[in-house]
User: Fold these one by one.
Assistant:
Number 1:
Amino acid sequence: MERMPLPQSLISAFLWPVRIDILTVLPELFSSWFGESILERAQSKGLVEIKVHDLRQWSPDKHRKVDDYPFGGGAGMVMQVEPIHRAIEQLRAERDYDEVIYLSPDGLLLDQPLANNLSTKGNLILLCGHYKGVDERVREHLITMEVSIGNYVLTGGELAAAVLCDAVVRLVPGVIGDETSALSDSFQDGLVAPPDYTRPADYQGWKVPDVLLSGHQANIDAWRHQQALERTRQRRPGMIEAGEEGEGG
Ligand code: ADE
């Protein structure tokens, strides 16, 4: 009898942690973010390993310089290929990586399906650009995927790398206490999330919808689905159209 293959996310969670290596010229930026919150707990539970590396340690320059003026002139500095190449080579000699991701405003837009996909991978390298960005040869020869967190330009890729880590790590099985909650997020089923309420049921006349207090689970589920559909139509109509196109083949 043929065996069903186990999903990569299960294998990663139970046999080895998801490993993310971040290459940056500003490693301090990550310490408070990764030292607190769910990302910290995920690491202390051994589900995820996030290592932040200072790219300057791979600089061949005695002043640990990692950037230079652009050939052909123009404003701003460009990150050099050599320190980045040396960093990636060293990491690759230690383990295999599924993707080497460059955070860039013109990369693939990060959305829930991309986060889901990345959460099923074992090891990732995230390269944060700075100044004008990286020497194009880095993109041509070393990078396997480019990711953007939106159509706007940040001063560097660090915030984008932190956003990507957060979106990916919370999907790793076991990271969020309530296993169902990551799956019921906005976007997971192609719809935004329905509204939530908590006590008190009546706050100065602002009332919680009766159906949520009814105890009738089928009605509650139907109401939530209806709300999610309605909100998606109002706020993200493109998601409904994309879903219909997908269904039609
Ligand atoms: N670096 C600068 N801007 C960025 C963006 N919008 N997404 C990812 N990386 C970036």
Number 2:
Amino acid sequence: MNHTNLKTLALFCKVVDNFGDIGICWRLARQLHLEHQISVQLWVDELLSFQRICPEVNPAIDQQIIQGVDVRFWRNQELSFSPVDIADIVIEFFACDIPPSYIQAMTACNPKPIWFNLEGLTAEEWVEGCHTLPSSHPQLPLTKYFFFPGFNQRTGGLMFEKDLDQRRQSFVNEVSQGHQFLRQLGAQEQDLNAFKISLFCYPHAPVSGLLQAWSTSETPHFCIVPQGVAQASIERFFGEQANSGAILIKGSLRLLVIPFIPQNDYDQLLWACDFNFVRGEDSFVRAQWALRPFVWHIYPQDEQLHHKKLRAFLSTYKPASSTFKSLNLAWNEALQDLDWGDAWQQIRNECLQIRKETEAWQQEMHRNGDLSANLLKFARVLRQKPT
Ligand code: TRH
């Protein structure tokens, strides 16, 4: 038997909240299947959120093949498994507890599956010491390995598809393609030449200062917001309802509310805009691949832990603009009293420079290797190790 022959993988995803958990797992599952010919089972405990980012998902069925990935509804912890069901590689995302019967069946496999806990992304230094660390099961003869995404070679890197940059480049080189994409979302002709912004943030983002800056700007601004995002703040600012399809207008600002769009389309939205507001983990990484300036709304944590994470990222990230840093800090309430109008004017002047520096950042990140390839490489090393 060829012990390096790892062909099957089970990825367990608990949707804790929002879309990042399934967003990341779906991306990883597709990439492992498409680029590495791995047969992937994706176990998800909540199919409705999945359907929002992938409309092919039918939330009413327990097992379906989507884009080559075997999607299974993770109904409960009582699901029963035997050794033949167990994949060569098992990933639990964000330390979700996989079903006890699955773990029990893992012990009966020979060789035992390679078991990972895929963790969340942070630029903090401590992850370098924890990445790939083994953790023995307290009772069973099984070892689980921590795998951390990250921004340098001492981590698992970031996810990027092989053809991503080529797809992005052909999209941005063909201006009409971007315009056509925006028209389909509901943009009108005058919006296509405005300064285009996509807005994806948590409800507590201090949106009004920026809406004010855009509406009083000397140049036209066009903002695209998925329905439900910052809805209360937007409605307060415009004094109108912000339902899907609405175009809200104030001064130089036109704001279009769109429905949630499929994950691949969301990439195109990032490419089609001049500036992106992103959040969480997955859209934050995709904004970096879009090579546009962005502002990151980090997922809030107790005791302001997220401010530490934000600062760690800002000191790692290549573009040196101090306005970029202030905007990101203020957007996350880690900096008070920012003059949004001045800061916006300033960042607009720096956009070209930031774009250039972002390209260098992207090349550096790509040199760390793609997360899915790094994970498989490490799994193969583990499989060759004598047990
Ligand atoms: O939705 P998020 O805030 O997700 C998460 C979760 O809160 C998670 O629990 C937490 O651990 C993590 O953040 C840090 O943001 P994120 O990560 O950007 O995920 C959003 C996903 O939704 C991403 O894959 C892009 C996708 N998306 C679409 O497919 N269509 C859309 O219209 C939009 C706006 C996003």
